[in-house]
Design goal:
By secondary structure, the protein is of the alpha/beta class. The structure holds 5-amino-5-deoxy-1-O-phosphono-D-mannitol (M6R). Residues 304-307, 351-353, 356, 359, 402-404, 487, 491, 607-608 line the site of 5-amino-5-deoxy-1-O-phosphono-D-mannitol.
């Protein structure tokens, strides 16, 4: 996820673009850049780091042009360097583009363009710029349209060409683009952005580009075309949000927005990483020969907090699919233990931020002891990503709320793919591989079904808002889900919560139960269903209130609780991807009901860079 802003009008473009980038910085912030048409030439400046760095670099430059594009990057292809920052030129530096999304067939296109073009970066976007340049015969829109018929992937794209100093062309497939239209009272200006937040201080009138549409603003006129190059009539809509609301895309908090991002970003986590026909997944980042992969006799997953609970789900997957003994170690413990690690041990370090100090220290310790160390990280170019000898980005996009949500589900997704990759090398059959991949592909739709129950979950959260303590229970793969549910609840609502495997209740914890001590039980239909049901019945017998997560259609649950959240059925190993979404919503609504600062809970930081 990156941020795009473009301007064409009568004002100086630069201040509008820099202000717009600041509004969009939440979408990505590893590097930024701007390109403006100045006297029929394109002037471009880029910088690594936050928008402040770019603004600093630009402050002594003279930009007077009225047409420009800018970008704040969240790296997907290629490291965080100035070279890789957008905007990207073609060869003759007359055509320039900014892009959000992933061009999946960029290698093929690069090969097709051959020696005629010189590439300076590691990005898929630069290849797209060269493709458009290659197809350019005097009409920028036609060149963009032709190029887009040749690419596979997703994009929000804005292009300029110095031969057409009063033209901007934009296109969308899978990544949003909003066009602000300010043509009243002598204004004659248009804004193109990834969301409405940078536009709203100029105009509330917008059009939303739809997939497969191409927009051309030229000589003060705006037209939208479909892929057959026919004009499409677009309605101008009035936005009611203010600027802050727009950044959150209308959601009251980043956390809720990020919970709702999950069906979309989940697709980004798995895209291009599996082959359904052969029931296999392939994460190139493993960076090991087949022989080395076969030699692995132990896997250790190292992480903190939510990332460690994602790791616990991964443990079940590695053991079940690949038969490799797997443990999960909390980073702060691993670094001070005497871990038994050798050159047959594969260590995955899991971290959303890629900067967690304890996880970083554990990584260094594992490397020192000679293990294969790979990262599963969200933030591209982060320290953990750089210090591991391989690994995989989870592509969840920026996660700004302190409580981790979409990074959890995407980490689980990537671990499942790794487990399948090892599994198919070892003991998982083609049929099982296929079944897992098919089930993974159904997850976004099933997540959406849970998100649609947000209001119902809110009613349950409000009912229990005066609860001082809560216990979460689950079994098997849902035990980490219970741990994650309890962590989510306590960190943002400050309600005390703990989690236990259902079978552990009788060994002490059951003494706590009373009529004002609710239990949240995860009781979906899987091989441990009957065991879990017995645990819930034991709770009911002690008259403690029960909230249930159950599988859709499981009518037999009605006698156990008044408060049931039904989730769609999936394969057992994949259940955490759904059940956790329900628990995230429960924690969120509880915190809101209690008037907590949901996105910035007390005493916590998003990235824990101290021991
Ligand atoms: O950035 P990391 O994934 O390494 O962070 C690990 C934990 O600090 C993090 O998951 C923390 O537990 C979250 N606040 C949980 O929502």
């Amino acid at each position: 996820m990156c941020g795009i802003i473009g301007y064409i009008g009568k004002k100086e473009a630069l201040p509008i673009l820099i202000k717009g980038l600041r509004r969009l910085e939440y979408r990505g912030y590893d590097s930024a850049g701007v390109a403006i048409i100045e006297d029929s030439n394109i002037k471009r400046i880029r910088s690594v780091g936050r928008i402040d760095n770019l603004a600093d670099k630009i402050k002594n430059e003279k930009f007077t042009g009225h047409v420009g594009i800018a970008h704040t990057r969240w790296a997907t292809h290629g490291g965080v360097t100035e070279e890789n920052a957008h905007p990207h030129f073609g060869c003759d530096e007359k055509l320039v583009i900014v892009h959000n999304g992933i061009i999946e067939n960029y290698r093929e296109i690069k090969e097709m363009l051959g020696n005629k073009h010189t590439f300076k970066t590691e990005t898929d976007t630069e290849i797209l710029a060269h493709l458009i340049e290659n197809n350019y015969t005097g009409d920028l829109r036609l060149a963009v349209e032709k190029s887009l018929t040749m690419v596979r992937g997703t994009y929000a794209l804005v292009a300029m060409h110095s031969d057409h100093p009063d033209t901007i062309v934009a296109a969308r497939l899978g990544s949003p683009l909003v066009v602000g239209v300010n043509t009243d009272n002598g204004h004659d200006e248009y804004f193109i952005a990834s969301d409405a937040s940078p536009i709203l201080s100029y105009t509330k009138k917008v059009i939303f580009l739809d997939d497969n549409e191409v927009l051309e603003i030229s000589g003060g006129k705006m037209n939208t075309f479909n892929i057959k190059d026919e004009i499409v009539q677009k309605n101008i809509e009035e936005i009611e949000w203010d600027e802050a609301e727009a950044q959150k895309q209308g959601f009251p908090h980043f956390m809720l927005k990020e919970i709702f991002d999950q069906p979309r970003v989940f697709v980004d986590a798995i895209r291009g990483r599996y082959d359904l026909k052969n029931g296999i997944s392939f994460l190139g980042g493993i960076n090991m020969t087949e022989e080395e992969m076969h030699s692995v006799n132990k896997i250790i997953l190292i992480a903190c907090g939510t990332a460690s609970y994602a790791g616990m789900v991964g443990k079940y997957a590695f053991e079940r699919l690949a038969g490799i003994p797997t443990t999960v170690e909390v980073s702060s413990e691993f670094r001070y233990s005497d871990p038994i690690v050798d050159d047959k041990t594969l260590v995955f370090v899991l971290s959303q931020s890629g900067e967690t100090a304890d996880t970083l220290a554990a990584l260094r310790e594992a490397k020192r002891k000679g293990a294969f160390v790979r990262g599963v990280v969200n933030v591209v170019g982060s320290t953990i990503a750089r210090e591991t000898d391989g690994g995989t980005y989870i592509h969840a996009g920026p996660e700004l709320a302190v409580a981790s949500t979409k990074a959890y589900t995407n980490t689980v997704a990537v671990l499942l793919l790794y487990a399948l990759q090892f599994g198919r090398l070892k003991r998982t059959s083609l049929a099982t591989g296929e079944r897992i991949l098919k089930a993974l592909l159904e997850i976004p739709e099933k997540m959406t079904k849970i998100l649609e129950q947000s209001d119902k979950i809110k009613v349950i959260a409000e009912k229990y808002k005066n609860t001082k303590n809560m216990m979460f229970i689950g079994r098997g793969v849902n035990y980490p889900v219970a741990l994650e549910g309890a962590l989510k609840l306590k960190e943002i609502s400050y309600v005390h919560a703990d989690a236990f495997p259902g079978g552990e209740l009788k060994h002490g914890h059951i003494a706590l139960l009373s009529t004002d001590f609710p239990i949240f039980a995860i009781m979906t239909k899987n091989q441990l269903y009957d065991k879990m049901r017995s645990n819930v019945e034991e709770i009911k017998a002690r008259k403690a209130p029960v909230i249930l997560i159950a599988t859709e259609g499981d009518v037999g649950t009605k006698d156990l609780s008044e408060d049931i959240i039904y989730v769609p059925e999936t394969m057992e190993l994949l259940e955490p991807l759904l059940n956790s979404v329900a628990l995230q919503l429960f924690a969120y609504h509880t915190a809101v009901t209690l008037g907590r600062d949901v996105d910035r809970p007390r005493n916590l930081a998003k990235s824990v860079t101290v021991e």
